[in-house]
Amino acid sequence: MAAKLPAKLEEVGEVRLETDILIIGAGNAGCYAAIEAKRRRPDLRVTLMEKAHIDRSGCLASGMDAINTYIKKNETVENLVRWSRAQAGGLLREDLTITMAELLNQAIEEWEEWGLPIKKDENGEYLARGRWDIAIQGSEMKVILAEKVREYGCEVLNRVVATNYLLDGDRVIGAMGFGVRDGKFYIIKAGATIVATGGAAGLYKPYTNDGVDSHHQIWYCPFNVGTGYAMGIRAGAEMTTFEMRWCAVRTKDFNGPIDTISVGYKAPMINAKGEKILAERYAHMGGDASPRFVRANAPMEEWLAGRGPCYVDTRHMTPEQVKTLKIDYLNERPSFVLFLAARGQDITREPIEVYGSDPYIVGGHTASGYWIDVKRATTLPGLFACGDVAGGVPNKFVGGCAAEGMLAARGAVEYLESLADRGQVDESLVAAEKARVYAPAIRQVREGDGVIPREMEERLQRLMDEYAGGVHQFYRMNRERLEYALKHLAILKDQTRYLVAHDLHELMEAHEIIDRLDVAEVLVHHLLFREETRWPGWQNRVDFPERDDTRFDCFVNSRRNPQTGEIEVFTRPYEQIIPGDRYRP
Amino acid sequence: MPPKVNLQKCDGCRAESEALCVQICPGDLMALDENNGKAYCRSARDCWDCMSCVKACPNGAIETRLPYQLGYYPAKLIPLVGSNKISWTVVDIHGKVERFTFKNRND
Question: B95: domain range?
């Protein structure tokens, strides 16, 4: 039974812990970081802070049917960089992609040893599902990983929500947060801290949100709300490439994954007239192998031109293939099979409709996130980042997030070993954070009136959808709309003082919307700054419709000044390591 | 999307420190009703339909229903969780039944 909310700040219990390595977020990347830290130094105390339960938290809660990047026998790290670079419209951190790719296969092969079934071909090799993808039966892959974390002796704090870093100057010496079950305030001091909280869903209104039951019928894990980005933004960490949003072609009305069908079963995308859109209209971009932003934009262009709805054409599939396809979905998003049943749909007769998703910020798919070095150190001393929260490496997907977790652990252990002292906790900062965390609960007791988190969440999502290029606006935006969004984001941020929470669950929701506002504000600044259209589908500036290499063949980075709250946006140059045309695989 | 709890089958996991669906839900959406001790979803709109609670329930008391706005009544998808494999039964709106069994963990 969950504890009651405190009526007064003095009633809030405290939990103070000291650990060697603190990992915030026990998803895929966080679990790999924990295991690798223990492998390097079994004597260290390694603590995971997880807002849900490690067995089913993060993106892998319902499973996965493929690992989208694995370097097969005839491929190389260099080839992966070339492919990923072209997929990302020429913009990624090559140094980070190389170091990730070097560890990629190890991470995946270990998962198999620990229990993850990976499909094999007739030669005993991993079954290919495309150039880089391999097919798995991953419905339990997160449970398997969580068991391994416990086996290695890592400490897991389930149902503890992180809210801010513990800072000594600009140095990160742990984190603070609260328990969703015990209601206590957590102050965790650490030698090194790794953030692995995933990306951000719920910044934009999904098109599936009619009625009361389907607000979270979205593709990305809706419980990843960008808390790790927000904590970094508030502490003054440098962020990169937020404007490279992740919008994807998904199954219409369900927002399910589509590569399962289009890559796995070579089902072409067609429009209402039966034309093969990618092959016929986007041949110059690579046809069916076009970059993902082209594929995201294609069905939306068809709708706008009056040629929607669009489909992936499954009508050529055999009954055996349909059965395998459904097993794939049962491994990744089982309820998509329920969706087909609820439509009474035989996909050998009726193709599967597709549409664009709501936009997400996801560093595992695009390059958004913390600006890091090859050791996965952020610009804040003592803080490392991995997985969807870390920037610079698009297309790392499940395997790459795991590999990056290992890299972050190595960086954190090395940093810990170099430390002369572990820093001082500033009690005035702790007291201020405690007051900030419980403010919505205290307000509910004292005032009994205000704004509930859901209202503010829906206001944010409507604003972003209409003025910052959401799916209802076909991802399009211009300067005036983005400035309107910024104006109202400022009002919303000011209004967070009116938030009220009736229980601990709602207190968590209050902090989720506070975090989303900080992420959304930085995102809009990034969208404003890049006065070009580099990735139609992900970032459509209708007032600057062309790519502008003279000004924007570079990274757009930002840093919020923790003293003034001003967000400074600036550029960093592209550094090419692997030769070749960056726009071709 | 709302998980629907069968009140006849749910016993609130009385032997556990916390009901398994409450423990596992990644969105912290499952809770026990203080009046009858049985599980319910506190916010149907916030469910991601990951089916973690359905798989975790020792009594098979939870069913994932699609929001009617998106999918018609009365389709069903029911898992049977084994130690190294899982079986799924799916019934579509016309009453057509399909079954799938596969390994989800190496031996």
Answer: 66-106
Is the CB of residue A52 less than 8 Å from the CB of residue A352? Answer: no
Whether residues A221 and A276 fall in one domain? no
Does the distance separating the beta carbons of B67 and A343 come in below 8 Å? no
- Residue A398 CA to residue A334 CA, distance in Å, equals 18
pLDDT, tens digit, 9 for 90 and up, residues A369-388: 999 999 999 999 999 999 99
Residue found under tokens 């049943």: A341
Q: B42 and B31, same structural domain?
A: yes
- What number is the ipTM of this complex? 0.97
Q: Which amino acid is at A274?
A: G
Beta-carbon neighbour count of residue A468 at 10 Å?
25
For residues B70 and B59, membership in a common domain is answered with no
B38 and B56 within one domain: yes
Dihedral pair phi/psi, residue A545, rounded to 5°: -75, -10
- Sign of the C-alpha dihedral, residues A502, A507, A513, A518? positive
User: What is the three-class DSSP state of A285?
Assistant: helix
- Active-site positions of B read 48
Contacts of B23 in chain A (CB under 8 A): 53
Cβ(A46)–Cβ(A216) below 8 Å: no
Question: Which of B13, B70, B85, B96 should be substituted to probe chain A, the one whose Cβ sees the most A Cβ atoms within 10 Å?
Answer: B70
Per-residue pLDDT of A60-90, as tens digits, reads: 999 999 999 999 999 999 999 999 999 999 9
* Burial grade of A583 (CB within 10 A; 0-12, 13-18, 19 or more): middle
What three-state secondary structure class fits A318? coil
Q: Taken in order A26, A29, A35, A40, is the CA torsion positive or negative?
A: negative
pLDDT band at residue B1 using 50, 70 and 90 as cut-offs: low
Entry field: residues in chain A: 585
Residue B75's identity, in one-letter code, is A
Nearest residue to A142 via CA among A111, A182, A176, A173: A111
pLDDT under 50 in chain A at which residues? none
Q: Which residue segment(s) compose the domain that A174 sits in?
A: 12-242+364-418
As for how many domains chain A has, the answer is: 3
Beta pairing class for B3-5 and B62-64: antiparallel
A439–chain B nearest CA distance, Å: 21
